[in-house]
Every structure is written in structure tokens, then in C-alpha cells.
Amino acid sequence: GLGLKGKWPLGGGFRLEDAITVVNGAGMNVAGPEDFNRRKNVWGRVGARYKNDALMARFGVSGGYGDIKDQGVDLFSTADDSVINFKRLGADVEINQKLLFMAAEYVMGWDEEAGDVSDLSGYYVILTGKTPWQVGPLVRYDTLDDEFRRWTVGAYYGMPSADLRVLANYEFRRAKNDEFPNGEDDRLYLWLQVRF
Known about the structure:
By secondary structure, the chain is mostly beta strands. The protein contains no helices and 11 strands.
């Protein structure tokens, strides 16, 4: 594929940003028989950023267009293979300052397979508190149509450049389907990273 990534300063702490990529297929290492057509997939994001000594704010829109081969249930047979044409559209915002970090994104997607079109939309919002001791709380909410809803609460220790980082999250999962008509079980995640 081919990618173009750039930023253009506008003065006064503002700049424009872009990242656009054209690739020959969807998925990792798509080649040979899996590169099933001549169509190219396009992914991209354009946005603006403002930054001063106390605040960084960013807003952007993103999208994708192309197709992907679904290998069906039997990975060794092409009898149940199908092609999915997809379109994606999203908008994101990010605010980073001394006491908090906030990020949110709204996404929409359309898939067409054998003439049938399905669509999904969803969003997430995350808020993270900051303290002078490199420890803080976080809360996040995710949703995807009526199929998935999740609250996450947790805490972290250590900044990205720290030698020791710890993250503890508790997820209140509210995904409902035939297997879990009352919602999935909640989950506790503990994550530790040591750099040396």
C-alpha cells in the first residue's frame, strides 16, 4: 500500500493533520489467492489540533472504503466464502490538560454482502484523572447499537515513559444475545508492564 501522513502548522498553536492510506486488500499479509480482486481499500483521517502550555485539543473525521473476503466457517474451502463491501465513517475529539484526559469517538459502518446491507453505529467516551503522583482514576463507556454496552471503571499507576506501569479495570458488561440474554459476566482486568 501507500500512505500519506502530514501536519501543517497554521500559527497560534493550531495545525492541520492528515493520514491517508491506500492498500491492495484488507487483512494482514493479503496476497496470492486471498488478494481476490483489483479493488483498493482506502483509509484516512483529517483533523485539526490546538496546543499551548496547558492544553492540547484535537478533532478529526475518519473513514474507510473497500472490501474484505470472509472465508466463512470452513477456512479450507471456498464454497462458503463471500465478499463484504464496507464503508466506515467516524468523528473523534481529544482533550489533554493538567488535571484530566478525555477522548471520545462516534463511528458508523455499512456492510453489503450478497445484496444485503447492514449498518451499525456506536461511540465511546473515556475520562482519566491526573495527579502529581502518577496515579489516577478512569471511567469509560462503550456502546455499539443495541448489541453491546459496557461501563469500565479503574485506576492506573505510571505514565507511558515510566519503568513500572499498572492498570486495573473492572468492566460492567451489558452485551445481550441468545447466549447471554441477561448480559455477559462482568470482568476484572489487571495489567502490569515493567521496562528495563
